[in-house]
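Q: Sequence in, structure out?
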Amino acid sequence: MLPSARSVLAGTQAARGAVAAVSGLVTGRVRIGTIQTLTCVDLAAEPASYHRLRPRAQISLRKATTPELIAGVRAGEPDLAFLAPDAAELPDGMAGFAT
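A: Exactly. Output:
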């Protein structure tokens, strides 16, 4: 029985090591939409900052028009969108912030 017990203990230690290796890591994806002429946000720096904090997260970027992005956010694709700062009022249920 001793060899079996050692095997179980080794497996338990390996499992603990695997859990410890990924503990605290955030994974997933963030889908960002933007208008083509966006100038108030550095679209190279912002995703890079996020990626440094969460290196296992996937970040994707999609360009579209403001109406397409608003419709997309409502439908859940993308997760967030950068729109023109002088764009018309946002529809009910949507919130924005100025940079």
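The helical segments are 2-22, 45-53, 66-75.
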